Amino acid sequence: KREREILTQTYKKVLDIAIENNIRSVAFPNISTGRYGFPKDIAAVIAFESVVEFLTSDPSNKIIFVCFDLENFEIYKEQL
Fold first, then answer.
1. What's the CA gap between 41 and 79, in Å, rounded?
2. Among 7, 35, 43, 74, which has the minimal tally of Cβ within 10 Å of its Cβ?
3. Are 66 and 27 in contact (CB under 8 A)?
4. CA–CA dist 22, 61 (Å, integer)
5. Residue 66, SS3 per DSSP
6. Alpha-carbon span 13 to 28, nearest angstrom
7. 20-55 pLDDT, tens per residue?
8. Are 65 and 28 within 8 A, CB to CB?
9. DSSP labels for 12-63?
10. Which of 13, 2, 3, 77 is nearest to 50 (CA)?
């Protein structure tokens, strides 16, 4: 019911923790798209929106997306 909001908050929380701990690079897997079955295309949009918002305030960080299957890879490639 609140899956989109929770996923968005997850990205933001991880990025906040990175800032608090002076971590300059973060790798994200395809959060919630495996066992939890969250739609991969929607998850990718949320991931990119969250990261782009973060990078506009601090572009010196490095964000890596880790895709565990070809379908996710193709969806993330389209987002780029």
1. 9
2. 35
3. yes
4. 10
5. strand
6. 12
7. 999 999 999 999 998 888 999 999 999 999 999 999
8. yes
9. HHHHHHHHHTT--EEEEE-TTSSTT---HHHHHHHHHHHHHHHHHH-TTSEE
10. 13
